């Protein structure tokens, strides 16, 4: 085999491999329902509070976008998000498990035909300046419930204390136990004091959205 043909074949094999990897796994919500036992203990209890790195309500994930849930779990699995419990859970999941669980929660508790406002309520006073400075709606949508890319989270109606902790985590660098590695969000969050992040979190949490916590039991 001459070198040109050998190179061509190698290129085709590499291209085919890349194409295969680039295709996203399709999640199966019914399969995902059988894989959520480790999720229910926190995310299936209304008002459940985590205690690390501080006390806050765990995020509402029912109704969250599947691509975002998948992105978040994958980030925990890779260590880009540092949280001991979530890292342990994520590393126990295959890529297909993550896709299935994401599909399940994206549809869980969703009410067909439910309408959301096109825009968030008008921010008042200092919050208006903070939203503008962070350019929050340019990614998360004018109502904070329809992000421009499915890998970005819906934020409207999320627990305020969770949003505050999440935003602070983008400012953390150099620790092995908590923090989030994301260049874009890191750049945004570092513009603000923690007091300002708390104000932002409170405003976004007060908006109407799809997110909810649906009570679930392990014994079904």
Describe this structure in words.
The chain has 220 residues and is mainly α. The protein has a single domain, classed as Cytochrome c-like domain (Cytochrome Bc1 Complex, Chain D, domain 2, Orthogonal Bundle), CATH 1.10.760.10. 49% of the residues lie in helices and 4% in strands. The chain contains 11 helices and 4 strands, in the order αααββαβαααααβαα. The protein has a two-stranded antiparallel sheet with strand order 1-2. It has a two-stranded antiparallel sheet with strand order 3-4. A hairpin with a 5-residue loop joins strand 1 and strand 2. The longest helix is centred in the N-terminal third of the chain and has 20 residues. It is globular and about 45 Å long. The N terminus is likely disordered.
List the helices and strands and how they pair.
Layout: H1 3-22, H2 29-33, H3 37-43, E1 49-50, E2 56-57, H4 66-78, E3 81-82, H5 84-91, H6 95-107, H7 126-134, H8 137-140, H9 160-169, E4 179-180, H10 183-189, H11 194-205
Antiparallel strand pairs: 1-2, 3-4
Helix pairs in contact: 4-5, 4-6, 9-11
- CATH architecture annotation name: Orthogonal Bundle
Q: Approximately how much helix is present in the residues?
A: 40-55%
Poorly predicted ranges (pLDDT <50, ≥5 residues)?
1-22
Give the neighbour order of strands across the main sheet. 1-2
* Order of secondary-structure elements: HHHEEHEHHHHHEHH
Quickly describe the structure.
The protein is mainly alpha-helical and 220 residues long. The protein has helices at 3-22, 29-33, 37-43, 66-78, 84-91, 95-107, 126-134, 137-140, 160-169, 183-189, 194-205, and strands at residues 49-50, 56-57, 81-82, 179-180.
């Amino acid at each position: 085999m001459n070198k040109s043909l050998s190179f061509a074949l190698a290129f085709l094999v590499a291209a085919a491999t890349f194409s295969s990897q680039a295709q996203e796994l399709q999640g199966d919500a019914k399969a995902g329902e059988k894989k959520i036992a480790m999720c229910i203990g926190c995310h299936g209890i209304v008002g459940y509070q985590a205690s690390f790195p501080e006390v806050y309500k765990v995020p509402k994930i029912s109704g969250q976008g599947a691509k975002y849930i998948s992105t978040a779990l994958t980030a925990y699995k890779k260590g880009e998000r540092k949280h001991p419990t979530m890292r342990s859970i994520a590393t126990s999941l295959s890529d297909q498990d993550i896709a299935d669980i994401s599909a399940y929660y994206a549809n869980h508790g969703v009410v067909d035909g439910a309408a959301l406002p096109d825009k968030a309520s008008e921010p008042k006073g200092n919050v208006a300046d903070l939203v503008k400075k962070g350019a929050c709606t340019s990614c998360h949508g004018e109502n904070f419930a329809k992000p421009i890319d499915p890998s970005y989270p819906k934020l409207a109606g999320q627990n305020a204390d969770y949003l505050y902790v999440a935003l602070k985590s983008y400012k953390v660098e150099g620790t092995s136990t908590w923090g989030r590695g994301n260049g874009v969000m890191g750049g945004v969050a570092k513009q603000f004091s923690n007091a300002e992040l708390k104000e932002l979190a409170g405003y976004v949490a007060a908006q109407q959205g799809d997110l909810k916590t649906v009570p679930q039991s392990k014994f079904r």
